[in-house]
Amino acid sequence: LFEPSPIVNAGALDRYPPGSVTLDVNSAIYLVHIAEGYFSLSAICTHLGCMTAWKPELGMIACPCHGSRFNQEGQKLAGPAPKPLPWLKTWVSDDGDLMVDRSVTVPQFQFLRV
Ligand code: FES
User: How many other C-beta atoms can be found within 10 angstroms of the C-beta atom of residue 107?
Assistant: First the structure.
């Protein structure tokens, strides 16, 4: 049984310009860069586990299954999701890459400032 590593190398910081929300579909995470810093969110809906999608025209994250909506910090705006999207441990590697551990959640609004 192959268990993929929970550690994701999301690449160089400059891939994520200020004001961006980037979905990595392979690892089901969002990499977000806003004025307060960088952070990552699980892209898996907390209702029944569907993959959400960033809707830039609406400025929100939307679940296609039952209509839950989240803001870019993962907080629920609408729908049946019982919890916000989890924030994930995020750091910068020695090589300057943005790293995420999908197996470790952190408190909301714990921004990575570099
Ligand atoms: Fe997302 Fe139901 S799985 S709203």
Answer: 6
